[in-house]
């Protein structure tokens, strides 16, 4: 059985996203376990609260020190907002996943085995007018975009 541990940081929306990710993973046959028993550690990050940003990055670094053999997936607003920068600088993470389509988390989690750190093209085209005005997004294809970076 595939096993994961989810470590959430940030606001109430982040907590809801974490619960939705857990629901998707549980439905896909993953089991939520303590970190020492997990195959995959998911750090659900915040990209807006300054202290939560730092805590999220520190969590990835600490999990890597504790469990060099486990895969670490950074999810959430931070990984979406700073995807390019994090892919280059946070090599301790094995993958990155945004928040636009939480249902895709199972694909990101399943790709953790033998993951290569390259961008995986998303199935949906999406255009951001601006992150600060997230609610004023314009979908080119009528569906939300998600991205997965490994």
What does this structure look like?
Helices cover 34% and strands 19% of the residues. The protein has 5 helices and 7 strands, in the order E-H-E-E-H-E-H-H-E-H-E-E. The protein has helices spanning 12-27, 50-66, 77-81, 83-89, 105-110, and strands at 2-8, 30-32, 40-45, 71-76, 95-97, 119-120, 148-149. Strands 2-1-3-4-5-7-6 form a 7-stranded mixed sheet, sandwiched between helices. The model is unreliable at 113-150 (pLDDT under 50).
Gist of the model:
This protein is 34% helix and 19% strand. The protein is of the alpha/beta class. The two termini are 22 Å apart.
Question: What share of residues is helical?
Answer: 25-40%
- Low-confidence segments: 113-150
Report the biggest beta sheet as strand number plus sense, adding barrel if it closes: 7 strands, mixed
Structural class given helices, strands, pairing? alpha/beta
Q: What is the 3D form?
A: globular
Reading off the top of the CATH hierarchy, the class is best stated as: Alpha Beta
Overall mean pLDDT stands at 76
Distance between the amino and carboxyl termini: 22 Å
State the CATH superfamily name: Methylthiotransferase, N-terminal domain
CATH architecture level-2 label? 3-Layer(aba) Sandwich
Question: How are the strands of the largest sheet arranged?
Answer: 2-1-3-4-5-7-6
Instruction: Work out the count of structural domains.
Output: 1
**Taking Cα atoms only, what radius of gyration do you get, to the nearest Å?**
14 Å
CATH third-level topology: Rossmann fold
Order of helices and strands: EHEEHEHHEHEE
β-strand number: 7
What is the beta-strand fraction?
A: 15-25%
Number of helices: 5
